[in-house]
Amino acid sequence: MTPRTLTRAALAGLAAAALFGTAACGSGFDDSAKDTKQSSGPANLQIMIGSSGDAETKAVQDAVAKWASSSGNTATVTPAQDLTQQLGQALAGGTPPDVFYVDASRFADYASVGALEPYGDKVSNKDDFYESLRNTFTYDGKLYCAPKDFSTLALEINTDLWAKAGLTDADVPTTWDQLTAASQKIKAKGMVALALGDTRDRIGAFMVQNGGWLMSKDGKQPTADTPENLQALQYVKGLLTNGYAKFPKQLDAGWSGEAFGKGKAVMTIEGNWIKGALKNDFPNVKYKVVPLPAGPKGQGTLSFTQCWGIAAKSKFKDQAIKFVEAMTAGDQQIAFANAFGVMPSRQSVRDQYTSAFPADKPFIDGAAYAQGPVNAPKMDSVLRDLESGLQGLANGDPKSILANFDKNAKAALGG
Question: pLDDT digits over 42-65, tens only?
Fold first, then answer.
């Protein structure tokens, strides 16, 4: 998702193993959660977050203190050093925090073993959350938790290098064909057109643009091995083999944003987190953000989001829901946006947000055609295998990569 989540796959196995190990022995989460005695008095909420930095930590602590003071409850915020590991251990050990960040990529693992309270339908005006975000946090037909905020992918263009390649605003690509045409002109000037992350979290956007994706909407069936996805990977392979696109490691960079910041590529595909990275590390780079080029089936992007999870074992579920409502209120979401750059998950404050951050309009517009992460449990090893295949896409067989995913996913999901 972002530079700070590049090690996600390496960390996920421990938490998943702990969770599924617990669910396999004894009654798992569901039965014990039903027996959790609820407290109707003032709550002492334990809240665990995975913070992006000091600005986010302070903003959340301030909001929590304000809520506690006005509601008569108390609350303690714990910024996790490693949210995936610490949360997984706490859930598996039976002592989870009451409320915590849940990344979309981990959501199905937690929901599938009964670790989460499915409170989504109890939140006021739940339809105000973007539909793509609600879908991301729906499991077995239930909306489990309220989306906290989100980000999407867009196309960033280095305007100085764009002009150096002899390109104008008229050349900004809105389709795959136009992306190819612009890339040809850039390559002819001796430059790399596109720095592209070598993961499903970037390449997957091309599948969505061609009407495809890796899993069915309900997360029950793998859907990778389709003509739509094959055409998408063949297109990306063409970008790579023609030298139009290069992976970050080919450009001596840790991620695409670094390659873009160093001027090693004219374009990149990243989320709105690139703003802070460029401002901090490459403040002199001039660039603009535009929507991703549409594929044969239309516009498509990927969304990355977290929700406010409530533990099924919490003794303060009613108070926790009220807390989440306060954290996801429109004015509070705008306050978080101003504090640490996230995009609000509620549609009702979209215009307010884009007025304050007009350059982010392509990102927030992407919510209308965004696809969330793979929404099935037990998929860590399957996704790692997919990543390995995508990293070798330039010399690999797209059909085999997709077929392997379907085979491995079916096995992980029990056939």
Answer: 899 999 999 988 999 999 999 999
